[in-house]
Amino acid sequence: MEETTPHPLIAARLAAGLTMEELVSGIRAAAARRRLRSGTDDARVRKWQRGVEPDDESQVYIAEALGWPADIVRADDWPNWLPLTADGVVPLGPHSSVPALREALRTAMERRTFFAISGVALSALAADWAIGPAAALAQARDGKPVGEDFVTFLENTTERLACLPTEQRQHTPALLDAHLSTVTELLEHGRYTPALGLRLHTLAASLSQTVAWHRFDLGRHTTASQNWIAGLHNAHAAGDHDLGAGLLGDLAYQAAWRGDHTTAASILHHALTRAQNPAARCLLQLRLARTLAARGERSERRTVMRALAAAEKHLSDAGTDRPAWCAWVSEADLAVDSGQALLDLGDTGRAHRLITDGEGLLPTARDKTKGVFAAYRAASYLDLKEPEPAAAAATQSLLLARRIGAPRCISLVDDLIPRFQPYRHAQGVPELLHLAAA
After folding, report:
1. Which 3-state string (H, E, C) describes the chain?
2. Of 49-53, 73-77, 113-117, 138-142, which range is least confident?
3. What is the pLDDT of residues 75-133, one digit of tens each?
4. Most buried residue, 37, 71, 236, 430, by CB count within 10 Å?
5. pLDDT digits (tens, 9 = 90+) for 389-410
6. CA proximity to 414, closest of 403, 398, 438
7. Could you give the CA distance from residue 13 to residue 294 in angstroms, rounded to a whole number?
8. Once rounded to an integer, what is the mean pLDDT over residues 14-37?
9. Positive or negative, the Cα torsion across 363, 368, 369, 375?
10. How far is residue 197's CA from residue 195's CA, in Å, rounded to a whole number?
């Protein structure tokens, strides 16, 4: 572990904006609220910062002194449960990759979400990434040696888990979490060569991205954000600008999904400054077009069309040498995302044709995407006031999503259900409403 890495208690205190004296005072006050007395002083806190473990009661007092509820404490996992930030975003820096992973793991362990990460904080992180040099790779100086064969095993099993068919990936979250926790431990406590360190950071970034999508599909947005942020830190440490841009693109996709298109556009503009691979730039431009169109501002129509044209050009330039996270980008995605952007711009006829054509191009392996596209097609039919084909598309999407375990796709259909109410007697609509209520 690097000697310059601060103890999590120091990081948590600084994130909370507390001096040592204020922390000590807060610990004593937490005990006093229980009509108890704490003998904590500066010397004892310094011992905790050097590796001495506080007892269970003291950990509860520490949490409350930092401004967090007592049930955040996991006394058997000191000091990993400590919150390292005030706003949920670990700042980019030369030693930030492991703390960002720890923050993501800590958030995943919490029983409830204590904060939502603001768009301002995410945009600031993206700006720092866009202008900053790559972070220095960690040089572990102690701990048990990490073997190349073991890292290869983790890389291969992670790739296999990520490449499983959609229907099987719903069974993998616990395995992916265990892999990410293992890689974090290796980075923090292992002894490895610079070459293995580069591979471990890259693996941590890839794992974090996969875990984030699992959380996002389940509607666990804060945990998803933390994993994408942790992935960004590790891609930054490894100097992989395309992967970093992809992780920012995922954060932008999440912001757009939640209706924060201003944050999404800001993040995507920063991501595009350093992305190089044509497939990566295609995906980022498609997401930019989608989020600009969704803002519904007529003045941005030209910007939307320029982004779609750029995406088409990048896709034509993309060869087989693509990053794994965007290897799947295809003519189907170009068609459907272009159609969705045009739908938001009011060009419903052309949008409907593109969405239908794009869905037909999808391979069987992308069932979840097919379900999402079917939901988009249902929305486009509703815009055209054609409830019968809309009901057929929504039913297809809902049945597919339930079969493969895709809650995000189910959510898309659920959001459309109120729009079917005026057409309760149209063919297929009563059956859809009954299915959605089941």
Report:
1. CCCCCCCHHHHHHHHCCCCHHHHHHHHHHHHHCCCCCCCCCHHHHHHHHCCCCCCHHHHHHHHHHCCCCHHHCCHHHCCCCCCCCCCCCCCCCCCCHHHHHHHHHHHHHCCCCCCCCCHHHHHHHHHHHHHCCCCCCCCCCCCCECCHHHHHHHHHHHHHHHCCCHHHHCCCHHHHHHHHHHHHHHHHHCECCHHHHHHHHHHHHHHHHHHHHHHHHCCCHHHHHHHHHHHHHHHHHHCCHHHHHHHHHHHHHHHHHCCCHHHHHHHHHHHHCCCCCHHHHHHHHHHHHHHHHHCCCHHHHHHHHHHHHHHHHHHHHCCCCCCHHHCCCCHHHHHHHHHHHHHHHCCHHHHHHHHHHHHHCCCHHHHHHHHHHHHHHHHHHHHCCCHHHHHHHHHHHHHHHHHHCCHHHHHHHHHHHHHHHHHCCCCCHHHHHHHHHC
2. 138-142
3. 888 988 887 776 778 888 777 888 889 888 877 765 444 557 889 989 999 999 998 77
4. 236
5. 999 999 999 999 998 888 888 9
6. 398
7. 40
8. 89
9. positive
10. 5
Return the structure tokens found at 328.
């799947």
State how far the Cα of 57 lies from the Cα of 50, in Å rounded to an integer: 19
The one-letter amino acid at 352:
H
Q: Is the pLDDT of residue 140 over 70?
A: no
* Sequence letter at residue 272: L
CB 51 within 8 A of CB 188: no
The single residue listed with the structure tokens 């996002």 is 216
Unique residue bearing structure tokens 């972070």: 135
Task: For residue 321, count CB atoms less than 10 angstroms from its CB and return exposed for 0-12, middle for 13-18, buried for 19 or more.
Answer: exposed
In degrees and rounded to multiples of 5, residue 145 shows phi and psi of -65, 145
- Contact between 134 and 236 under an 8 Å Cβ cutoff? The reply is yes
Q: Is this model's pTM higher than 0.70 or not?
A: yes
Residue type at 129 in one-letter notation: W
